[in-house]
């Protein structure tokens, strides 16, 4: 077992409690692990819920506008790449025809 030295999130010294190889605290052996897992899972879900409350969600109008932009840009670049492909294909075909390879 090892003791923690630095808390990776805050940069402050972590409490010097024994830490098991699985990353959890060394509670009461095998019997304490399921309870510790449930506690950590609940803490994680509570923190996720609190974090999602702070998210600034886009309005329906913003989602609509950005969706339209993505569709239009996709169509534009699709057509652009089609023209580039057609031009290069025709150019290579012309070169191979002039050299007598095709």
Write up this protein.
This protein is mainly α. The chain folds into 2 domains: 2-53, no CATH class; 58-102. It is 61% helix and 4% strand. The chain has helices spanning 32-53, 60-99; strands spanning 2-3, 18-19. A two-stranded antiparallel ribbon has the order 1-2. The longest helix has 40 residues, at 60-99. It is elongated. The protein starts with a strand and ends with a helix.
List keywords for this structure.
mainly alpha, 2 domains, 2 helices, 2 strands
State the secondary-structure class: mainly alpha
Choose one word for the global shape.
elongated
Mean pLDDT: 81
Which residues form runs of ≥5 with pLDDT under 50? none
Report on the biggest sheet: 2 strands, antiparallel
Strand order of the largest sheet: 1-2
What's the N-to-C terminus distance?
Answer: 73 Å
SSE inventory with pairings:
Blueprint: E1 2-3, E2 18-19, H1 32-53, H2 60-99
Antiparallel strand pairs: 1-2
Write a concise synopsis of the structure shown.
The protein has 102 residues and is mainly alpha-helical. It is 61% helix and 4% strand. The protein has two domains: 2-53, no CATH class; 58-102.
